[in-house]
Amino acid sequence: MALPRALRVAGGRWARCLSSSAGVGGDTIFALSSAPGRCGVAVIRASGPGSRGALQTLTGTPKLPPPRILALRRIRDPDTAETLDRGLVVWFPGPRSFTGEDCAELHVHGGPAVVSGVLRALGRLPGLRPADPGEFTLRAFRRGKLDLTAAEGLGDLIRAETEAQRRQALRQMEGELGQLYQRWSDALTEALAHLEAYIDFSEDDNVEEEVLSRGQRPAAIVSPVAGTTRDVVEVALDIGGYPLVLSDTAGLRETTDLVEREGVARARDRLCQADLVLAVLDASAVPPKPAGLGAALGALQPPPGTPCVLVLNKADLLRGDGGPLRHGCAQRPPLPPTTLLSCKTGEGLDHLLELLARELARLCGDPLCGSPSLTQSRHSRHLGGCAAALARFGRERPRDLALAAEQLRLARRELGRITGHVGAEDVLDIIFRDFCVGK
Length: 439
What we know:
Layout lengths: L8 E2 L2 E2 L13 E5 L6 E9 L3 H9 L11 E6 L6 E10 L10 E8 L1 H12 L4 E3 L4 H8 L5 H12 L3 H11 L2 H26 L31 E7 L2 E7 L9 H16 L3 E6 L7 H11 L7 E6 L9 H7 L8 E3 L8 H16 L12 H20 L4 H19 L5 H8 L7
Parallel strand pairs: 3-8, 11-12, 12-13
Antiparallel strand pairs: 1-2, 3-4, 4-7, 5-6, 6-7, 9-10
């Protein structure tokens, strides 16, 4: 059968069937992507506009296998038509590839002679050159396939030696850390937009002054009258480094008021969904003995097996120092972790936060199962810069809104430097220079 014109033998040499777009959008790189040395299978990767033609030339056929499906092919030297190996090839048309470009992989036998022969053959094709260390990942970053934190996670995954390192690196490579930073950046962007809108338009009465206090706003109307809480009011908090959503509900009691009854029903429903129950009782209205406290807690009917912290509020109303009740709070079991609190004076708040942090640590377990950890010193440096800018924002805000807005921009820029979305050029070489060739 006659060979296609582009592949006909001429003077004992294979014609080079590179795509006419080889020079468009950058050059094409190639490298050994698996570990060097003798092995069962070696993976050689090419990325760029010339990868299609390179795969066609080395396999001696213009017909590529279906995208992302391995196919057995004879791999030939493009100059002599000599068979270098019989191996599996796979074609990844962009943008659905690791780098976002057209990519090709050759899975060949891992002997040094086979690998060097295929690499030499690729190097003789016009428009192809050996990849620099980390260049495949750099191209993936430039095409938006991953951000800098994910790229660093990939590097950490390659270097991981323990299970903990592997789990952390995999989560970072899959974008969890980048998503966390992006949420922070989005919050700063929104705050900056509100502040700049107030600076530009407040004189025309187009923007209300309340935009400056969003995020410090009261979560609900507070009243000393019993039964005024109806809806479930939620606020996000950071307790001891653990993120939580605190839901304030109506008091659990019998009532004939239809609206309050609906509030109690919603409170019961939220109680069943909670991972941790914060049971708040009136310290001046409960018996001081452990058995009496246990009975009062039981009347709230927390779900069986759900962790609970018992808070005895209104400690400021206790006679004397409330010694009997304080002694009763210290008796465990039968009581869950218990503390006295005065929302009026703030007494006991630190102890309550300590109890919550302890229960959250026990509930969440291994930090690797929670928010991803920092793995790079540059993350810490930029986060420190972000925190410093936010502190300056707090100092400038009462005096000069324009200077305060600039501090928000600086804080946002520091976060952007971590993910590569803002001002990343000065860190790219540092990130990718430590990658191995072929990644």
